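ARCHIVE CARD
CATEGORY: sequence design from structure
SOURCE FIELD: tokenized fold
FIELD CONTENT:
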């Protein structure tokens, strides 16, 4: 029995001691006055009586009641029931508190007391003070407390004739039965009826089971107030130890909400701060760092605002606010959604029926009390599902004298498949769960509903998951049990208690609550106490049993382990491999090994491996030979590498006994165990792992200790194996339960003996584990100690151990050991010390928890250093012997093929080439075998870094893997630490990335020392960044001097600049004259000579001026003849050939006949004095004198003044290039007045010169010499600048804005002369108005800011925004990472690649370049000249100018023309190749900026859109892209012609001393190769002479260049042709064994083979075949001649066909602006219509009226270019007789009518494949009935004849009968009408 109430207290209002307005509570009386011995009086009750503070009130409020909860120091809860009523203030109190009564009034209102409007009049100044009756109890009987206090109040108010002292005395002496009333016999004992002696009667029902919480209606109310989602998040927050704060205006609601939340947490007990009602004075408690559940009056909401980590639940508003910094982990799915659904079914049963057409009659919802229990039942089920099978993860460490139980958290999470789950992890680590384990882990105790549920109902719950009604039924069953627990005797629950009358509190005649007589009360209490002493003590009757364990757990989520779902087949492979290893069949095992290593990614396979190895240990087969040992170790390492530090699947635990069992004999007396080879895993340095292992083993041994001696004892080695006897199947918990039951019956001596036995078992295991830990923590080679210290556990032992007990002794022993040990080697000592400390901490923790005596513990601490020391000595011998082992046979290193002149710098270092983020190499989505990882060696030569090796996967076969790149292309090198694919050991590695899009990710083999790896890095760095350009491969190749020593400078070899310039001009004259003789105007190779004959005046020699300063002239005899040759080659090089072809200029300023020429070639820069980065000869306007150029150049950056680089043959507009303007020049150039005042002229003379210069350029254009008036670029209409179409993006701002918006408005036109094409298709050439500016200056927006336009409008500024070189560099870096990622992407590869490609913005830069170039092309084509003046004039300017020429002039689209373009614009005009390529040490910091590569990418984009316009192939562009960075040739080295002359390069390339030396010029190399093979040639080349290309530039039209993504692992990059020539294919021949000849079929692997090599196109194949046959006949011929002959024959054939256009497969007649597409989409405003543009005569100006005929004529030729392999579209076919030509007989032929190609074809017979003739339906004029002629078939009806009349002749036909003739005529007619 227990006391119902411990104390009764009367608390009243008292003034505050410091005289402040607030009052304070005073205890007037308390009963009993002495504290109970077992329960002292709780302090601070007066605060909790009035939580909002003690205040006076102007009105008489109704009485209030609530229950506050106080927790004492022993975590005991005391329930304080408070009934407050109000009494008038006596005059003394009034004086103190009147002044601020008014303010208190409002606060009191908020304090939760509702006011009733008073009916009785109250004195005007009357105030009321609160008085509280408090009942303190350890029992939670709220209703009884309410009734009892209510009774006392009623007696007082109603003035009943009952003695209050008696009532209170009875209350304090009332006893109630303990919980578990159901186990008592009589109802009276279980449900106690009490009376307080005032004619009252109350029934107190005690719950049946003490452990189940009593919730009454609190849970249901909580859900009503907050809703399902909010309550669930509060539930998760409380479980994961967050701070929860409830707010409400009602104290009772706060108390109920807190009570409800605690009830939901059952079976876990909340062990942190729990204050359902917190008084205002204690609000600072809210800032405590520990978790809590607290309720606070809503009046103090403002004070809670600044709490940053508190979850606030507002019960009145129904909201839960979670701060940003707090993350509440949700329940694991599917439990979250299941719980949510069941809760909504309980709370809102109508929801299920809401959509029914015929809803059933409304079902009555459960009562609130019942609903409360149903909600609790849902959470009880949730816990049963969450914790099911938890008893299988309990380790019983001690049984006597008290059970010690530990929970194996990792195993529990692992078996549930919830290792990653944040929620469960936090719950298991929380205090509540620790309490749960210690309370419920006990094997022998009384059980409750939860134990039953988790043991027996889990299977039912799983089965019911998908049946909501069965779930609901189960919930209701559980709810009934919970309800019965709270209300065991519903029949008896009858109360009779006196209540005060209505509004009794408002009566005037209140006397104050009387002072009670302590003596009377005390006497009653004493009497009762005396009575109780005689009675026997109340013992809580417990029915203890063995707690059922229930079924073993299943995963909440049936997850398979990733992609490795272990089928039985995989496990079979593992078993077979192990049996092969132990049977010594090593070859078989080796074949299976890769499959096994792949299978071991799955959990089942790892378990299987551990089990199989265990069986072999049991059969005493643990001593292995070296090969077996290697295999076993490798498989163990593979198993362990995926183990987390928790080892949740128990793999490391299963392997731990095995690594100490398997061993090999190294020499007599020296044995190496497997543990020395598997130490590199994080799991071994995790204290939690060792603790779990230790407890598991202790449990096994303790269980064995108690099994009957008659049984077979379980030896420790049988942990995994099955045991024999029936009794042994009992679990350790069952054994423990039995022992706990017997414990009280044992004698004292027997008990002592058992305790000692258990203690010594634990002690012996601790020694065993100290040994085991030293095995796995001490490295074999103590020099590797750094690895050890880096591992998690040992680096930071304090934080790693999760010890709750810290023992100072361990630290002190370890320290003394460190200082006194006799180790000489500090390193080793360090390792040993770390290990000793680690083991000591472990021993401390487990021994303290397992109750080992302190003497034993001291002994252990002394032993540990000795164990470690002993083990270190053993390891030294093992390490020494293992070094002497013969190395494992590794594959032979494959030597790479080298170029002539390429030398090896570092011989092969053994490495593994690891797969990077590109999945093809590992047999990814593209299929194919796993070529990577590969095992081989890396070589460093003077030219390349080369890896050669073989795949480690033996199933791939003997494929050689080669990956290489030029040293010069290296962009990033970083050290990495990776696992080797074979041994799974952590090794140092290197990751090298190159700008040729290769990535070498290598792990060094263990035989490669760190010094060798470091040497490799240093040498690589030295080769990548030589101090001088002479140290690069292109210079050292084939020369005598070594890279270190500069070459001897010989006078005769490199003539001085002065000598050079003297002869430059003379030789220019000769060269130009010679060129006139040798070169006519360029004509593209074609079928017809389409170009017009050259104008007469161009035949003249260009005059060369001899009027140079005498000081610079010396006789030319000073030069040797060979040098004179080089001079002339300089002039050729200086672009004269191209200027001559374009008809640009003369070398004179005086000769009269040259005056007509608008431009001249000026030698002003022959000494490179004006501009270092320009060529020696420049094109300038005829009228500008040389001396003025010096001044003009000052206005431009780097002195790069505007020079002409190209002139349009048609419009005669010129393209100029220059550097950007200097600020000073700009202001002077564009002044408002065109005629400057004399004062300004002196200051801005250079600006004037600049203006004159531009004026001269404008004047030199023929049609602008006399132009005046408003010239502006108009009619760039909305098509180009507006909403849709190509130029729309020009105006858009942001990263892709091409042109400024102001240009947009100025270029936007008025009206159009011709209809523009949309979708970015460029307009016709006539789209610009005749009045436009003569010169457009395209400059950087930033430079041209604030510039006013030229008043005469002869030139116009076009400011545009361009990217800078550094943006190109950054963009390229990202592009490299996107195309060649270092590691596999997390998400699916396609999207991640596209995303990173977009992030790089590379295609956006390409788009900008093309856009600007097309703009310039349009301007030039319309007759305006353009000056491109961007940045310094050598990056983007060069890109734009080159692209413009390529798009405008077909010559540059030939092999020779493209070379000339690159030589002129990129080499002569000084693109800084060395600087941008970071070729020397000086450029290292600037990094690689691929400006030239970007230009090539643009050309590639144009090539894709116009495949028939380029003589060179895509391979040619890739070849140049690779070699511009490779430094193999000298062409792309150095930054300008000036630098090349200084180094003597310009003439070497043209000199005759070539011989068989390696090519130094890339052009020479291309020429040589082109003679041998058509690899650079484009077979579809069929140019149109006047073609100006206008490519689409939108990003959607651009493609990623396959140069960035493709790779050939068979031979490395294919751009070094000598290396890429694979071995010739063997001819088919009989095999020696007489078998059938081997097939020539080959498997072509993506990423391994080069597709074009293995599978060349048909034309290349035929040309090769022809060459081979001709060689056999002895008359070899160049492939080009053969090809040209074939084309000529094709052309003739086309002519004989008699049609206007050739029918060649290669010729197209699609209109000139977009022949590449043939068909293009026109997007009109209405919608897109597919229109076939068939107007072939547009270029020659055919009118619309004749276009119908043109369309007719060309339809067939349009299709002829798309001839498919079948090329048969048969609309109708059959036999007809056809009359031959004149005098020829009738013949039966098989005719085919083809609607698609619009022709009637005929064949000899039905199966004939060769067409004998074609009638083009476009030429048919009529089909008419015919008449039989001579020789016609006799048997045929006359009506079966018909004629087809074409423009050329009449064809006579005859069908077999009349219907078929009619059918033919109809079909032909319908074809004609369709057309």
């Amino acid at each position: 029995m227990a006391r119902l109430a411990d104390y009764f207290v009367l608390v009243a209002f008292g003034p505050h001691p410091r005289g402040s307005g607030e009052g304070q509570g005073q205890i007037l009386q308390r009963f009993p006055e002495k504290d109970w011995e077992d329960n002292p009086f709780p302090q601070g009750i007066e605060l909790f009586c009035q939580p909002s503070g003690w205040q006076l009130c102007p009105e008489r409020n109704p009485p209030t009641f609530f229950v506050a909860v106080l927790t004492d120091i022993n975590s005991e809860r005391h329930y304080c029931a408070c009934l407050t009523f109000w009494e008038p203030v006596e005059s003394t109190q009034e004086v103190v508190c009147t002044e601020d009564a008014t303010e208190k009034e409002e606060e009191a209102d908020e304090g939760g007391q509702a006011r009733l409007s008073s009916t009785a009049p109250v004195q005007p100044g009357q105030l009321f003070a609160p008085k509280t009756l408090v009942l303190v109890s350890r029992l939670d009987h709220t209703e009884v407390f309410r009734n009892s206090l209510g009774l006392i109040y009623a007696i007082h108010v109603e003035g009943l004739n009952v003695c209050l002292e008696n009532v209170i005395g009875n209350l304090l002496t009332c006893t109630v039965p303990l919980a578990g009333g159901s186990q008592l016999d009589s109802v009276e004992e279980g449900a106690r009826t009490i009376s307080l002696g005032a004619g009252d009667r109350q029934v107190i029902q005690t719950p049946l089971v003490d452990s189940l919480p009593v919730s009454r209606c609190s849970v249901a109310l909580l859900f009503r107030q907050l809703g399902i989602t909010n309550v669930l998040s509060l539930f998760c927050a409380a479980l994961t130890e967050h701070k929860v704060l409830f707010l409400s205006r009602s104290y009772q609601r706060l108390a109920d909400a807190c009570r409800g939340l605690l009830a939901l947490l059952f079976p876990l007990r909340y062990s942190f701060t729990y204050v359902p009602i917190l008084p205002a004075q204690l609000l600072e408690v809210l800032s405590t760092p520990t978790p809590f559940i607290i309720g606070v009056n809503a009046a103090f909401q403002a004070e809670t605002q600044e709490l940053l980590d508190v979850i606030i639940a507002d019960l009145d508003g129904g909201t839960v606010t979670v701060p940003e910094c707090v993350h509440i982990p949700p329940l694991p799915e599917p439990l979250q959604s299941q719980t949510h659904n069941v809760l909504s079914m309980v709370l809102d049963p109508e929801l299920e029926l809401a959509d029914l057409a015929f809803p059933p009659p409304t079902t009555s919802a459960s009562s609130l009390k019942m609903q409360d229990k149903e909600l609790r039942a849902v959470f009880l089920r949730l816990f049963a599902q969450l914790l099911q099978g938890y008893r299988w993860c309990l380790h019983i460490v001690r049984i006597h004298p008290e059970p010690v139980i530990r929970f194996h958290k990792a195993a529990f999470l692992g078996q549930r498949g919830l290792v990653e789950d944040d929620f469960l992890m936090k719950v298991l680590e929380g205090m509540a769960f620790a309490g749960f384990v210690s309370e419920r882990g006990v094997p022998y105790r009384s059980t409750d509903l939860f134990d039953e549920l988790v043991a027996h109902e889990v299977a039912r719950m799983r089965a019911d998951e998908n049946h909501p009604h069965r779930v609901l039924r189960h919930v209701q069953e559980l709810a009934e049990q919970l309800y019965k627990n709270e209300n065991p005797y519903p029949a008896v629950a009858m109360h009779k208690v006196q209540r005060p009358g209505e509004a009794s509190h408002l009566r005037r005649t209140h006397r104050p609550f009387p002072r009670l007589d302590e003596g009377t009360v005390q006497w009653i209490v004493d009497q009762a106490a005396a009575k109780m002493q005689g009675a026997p003590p109340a013992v809580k009757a417990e029915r203890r049993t063995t707690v059922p364990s229930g079924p073993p757990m299943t995963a909440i989520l049936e997850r398979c382990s990733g992609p490795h779902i272990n089928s039985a087949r995989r496990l079979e492979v593992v078993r077979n491999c192990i049996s092969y290893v132990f049977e010594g069949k090593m070859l078989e095992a080796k074949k299976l090994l890769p499959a096994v290593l792949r299978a071991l990614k799955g959990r089942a396979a790892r378990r299987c491996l551990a089990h199989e190895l265990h069986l072999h240990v049991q059969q005493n087969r643990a001593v292995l030979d070296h090969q077996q040992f290697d295999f076993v170790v490798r498989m163990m390492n593979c198993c362990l590498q995926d183990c987390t530090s928790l080892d949740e699947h128990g793999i490391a635990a299963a392997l731990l006994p095995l690594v100490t069992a398997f061993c090999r004999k190294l020499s007599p007396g020296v044995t190496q165990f497997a543990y020395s080879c598997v130490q590199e895993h994080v799991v071994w340095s995790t204290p939690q792992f060792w603790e779990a292992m230790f407890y598991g083993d202790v449990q096994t041994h303790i269980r064995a200790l108690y099994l009957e001696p008659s049984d077979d004892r379980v030896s420790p080695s049988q942990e995994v194996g099955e045991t024999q006897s029936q009794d042994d199947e009992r679990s350790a918990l069952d054994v423990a339960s039995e022992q706990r039951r017997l414990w009280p019956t044992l004698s004292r001596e027997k008990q002592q003996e058992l305790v000692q036995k258990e203690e010594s078992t634990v002690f012996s295991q601790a020694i065993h584990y100290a040994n085991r830990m030293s095995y796995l923590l001490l490295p074999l080679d103590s020099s590797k100690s750094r690895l050890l210290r880096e591992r998690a556990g040992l680096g930071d032992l304090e934080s790693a151990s999760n010890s709750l007990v810290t023992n100072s002794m361990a630290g002190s022993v370890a320290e003394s050991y460190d200082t006194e040990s006799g180790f000489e080697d500090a390193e080793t000592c360090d390792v040993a010390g770390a290990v000793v400390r680690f083991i000591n901490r472990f021993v401390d923790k487990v021994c303290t928890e397992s109750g080992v005596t302190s003497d034993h513990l001291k002994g252990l601490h002394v032993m540990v250093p000795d164990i470690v020391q002993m083990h270190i000595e053993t390891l030294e011998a093992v390490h020494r012997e293992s070094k002497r082992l013969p190395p494992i046979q590794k594959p032979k290193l494959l030597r790479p093929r080298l170029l002539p002149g390429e030398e090896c710098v570092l011989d092969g270092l053994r490495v593994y080439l690891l797969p990077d983020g590109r999945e093809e190499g590992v047999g990814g989505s593209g299929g194919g075998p796993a070529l990577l990882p590969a095992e081989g060696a890396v070589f460093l030569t003077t030219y390349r870094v080369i890896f050669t090796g073989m795949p480690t996967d033996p199933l791939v076969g003997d494929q050689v893997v080669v990956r290489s790149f030029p040293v010069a292309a290296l962009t990033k090198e970083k050290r990495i630490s990776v696992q080797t694919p074979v041994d799974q050991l952590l090794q140092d590695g290197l990751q090298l990335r190159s700008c040729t899009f290769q990535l070498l990710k290598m792990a060094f083999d263990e035989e490669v020392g760190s010094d060798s790896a470091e040497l490799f890095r240093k040498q690589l760095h030295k080769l990548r960044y030589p101090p001088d350009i002479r140290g690069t491969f292109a210079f050292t190749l084939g020369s005598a001097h070594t890279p270190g020593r500069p070459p001897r400078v010989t006078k005769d070899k490199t003539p001085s600049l002065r000598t050079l310039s003297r002869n430059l001009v003379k030789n220019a004259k000769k060269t130009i004259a010679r060129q006139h003789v040798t070169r006519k105007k360029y004509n593209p190779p074609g079928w017809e000579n389409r170009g017009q004959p050259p104008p007469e005046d161009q035949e003249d020699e260009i005059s060369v001026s001899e009027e140079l300063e005498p000081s610079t002239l010396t006789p030319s005899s000073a030069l040797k003849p060979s040098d004179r040759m080089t001079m002339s080659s300089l002039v050729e090089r200086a672009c004269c050939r191209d200027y001559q072809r374009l008809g640009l200029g003369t070398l004179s300023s005086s000769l009269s006949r040259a005056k007509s020429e608008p431009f001249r070639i000026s030698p002003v820069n022959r000494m490179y004095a004006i501009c270092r980065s320009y060529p020696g000869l420049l094109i300038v306007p005829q009228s500008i004198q040389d001396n003025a150029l010096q001044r003009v150049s000052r206005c431009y950056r780097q002195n790069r003044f505007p020079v002409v680089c190209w002139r349009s043959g048609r419009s005669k507009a010129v393209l100029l290039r220059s550097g950007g303007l200097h600020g000073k020049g700009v202001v002077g150039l564009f002044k408002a007045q065109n005629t400057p005042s004399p004062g300004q002229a002196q200051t801005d003379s250079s600006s004037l010169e600049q203006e004159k210069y531009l004026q001269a350029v404008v004047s030199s254009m023929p049609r602008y010499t006399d132009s005046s008036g408003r010239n502006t670029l108009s009619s760039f209409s909305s098509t180009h600048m507006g909403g849709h179409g190509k130029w729309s993006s020009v105006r858009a701002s942001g990263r892709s804005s091409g042109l400024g918006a102001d240009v947009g408005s100025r270029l936007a036109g008025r009206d159009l002369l011709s209809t523009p094409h949309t979708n970015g298709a460029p307009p016709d050439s006539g789209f610009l108005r005749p009045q436009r500016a003569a010169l457009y200056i395209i400059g950087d927006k930033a430079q041209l800011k604030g510039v006013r336009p030229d008043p005469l409008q002869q030139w116009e500024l076009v400011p545009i925004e361009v990217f800078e070189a550094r943006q190109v560099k950054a963009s390229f870096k990202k592009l490299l990472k996107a195309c060649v990622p270092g590691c596999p992407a997390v998400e699916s590869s396609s999207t991640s690649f596209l995303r990173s490609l977009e992030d790089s913005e590379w295609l956006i830069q390409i788009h900008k370049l093309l856009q600007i170039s097309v703009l310039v092309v349009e301007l030039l084509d319309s007759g305006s000249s353009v000056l491109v003046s961007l940045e310094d004039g050598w990056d983007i300017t060069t890109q734009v100018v080159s692209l413009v020429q390529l798009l405008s002039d077909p010559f540059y689209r030939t092999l020779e023309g493209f070379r000339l373009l690159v030589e002129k614009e990129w080499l002569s005009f000084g693109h800084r190749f060395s600087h941008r390529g970071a070729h020397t040490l000086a450029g290292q910091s600037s990094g690689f900026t691929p400006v030239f590569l970007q230009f090539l990418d643009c050309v590639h984009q144009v090539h894709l859109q116009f495949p028939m316009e380029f003589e060179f192939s895509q391979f040619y562009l890739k070849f140049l892209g690779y070699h511009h960075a490779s430094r193999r040739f000298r062409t792309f080295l150095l930054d300008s012609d000036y630098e090349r002359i200084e180094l003597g390069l310009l003439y070497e390339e043209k000199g005759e001393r070539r011989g068989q030396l390696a090519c130094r010029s890339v052009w020479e190399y291309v020429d040589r190769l082109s003679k041998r093979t058509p690899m650079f040639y484009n077979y579809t080349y069929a140019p149109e002479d006047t073609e100006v290309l206008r490519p689409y530039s939108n990003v959607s039209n651009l493609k990623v260049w396959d140069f960035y993504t493709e790779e050939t692992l068979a031979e490395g990059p294919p751009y070094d042709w000598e290396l890429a020539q694979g071995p010739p294919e063997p001819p088919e021949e009989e095999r020696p064994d007489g078998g059938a000849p081997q097939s020539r079929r080959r498997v072509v692997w993506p990423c391994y083979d080069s597709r074009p090599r293995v599978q060349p196109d048909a034309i290349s194949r035929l040309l090769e075949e022809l060459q081979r046959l001709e060689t056999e006949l002895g008359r070899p011929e160049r492939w080009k001649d053969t090809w040209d002959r074939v084309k000529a024959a094709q052309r003739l054939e086309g002519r004989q066909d008699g049609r206007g256009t050739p029918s060649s497969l290669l010729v197209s007649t699609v209109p000139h602006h977009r022949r590449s597409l043939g068909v293009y989409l026109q997007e009109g405003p209405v919608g897109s219509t597919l229109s076939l543009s068939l107007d072939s005569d547009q270029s020659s100006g055919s009118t619309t009226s004749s276009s119908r005929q043109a369309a007719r004529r060309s339809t067939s030729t349009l299709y002829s270019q798309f001839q498919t392999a079948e090329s048969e579209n048969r609309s109708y076919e059959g036999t007809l007789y056809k009359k031959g030509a004149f005098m020829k007989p009738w013949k039966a032929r098989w005719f085919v009518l083809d609607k698609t190609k619009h022709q009637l074809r005929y064949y000899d017979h039905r199966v004939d494949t060769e067409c004998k003739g074609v009638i083009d339906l476009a030429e048919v004029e009529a089909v008419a009935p015919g008449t039989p002629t001579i020789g016609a078939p006799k048997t045929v009806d006359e009506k079966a004849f018909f004629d087809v009349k074409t423009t050329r002749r009449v064809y006579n036909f005859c069908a077999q009968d009349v219907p078929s003739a009619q059918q033919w005529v109809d079909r032909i007619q319908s074809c004609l009408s369709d057309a």
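CARD ANNOTATION: The radius of gyration is 50 Å. The chain has a mean pLDDT of 76.
SHELF: design records, drawer C
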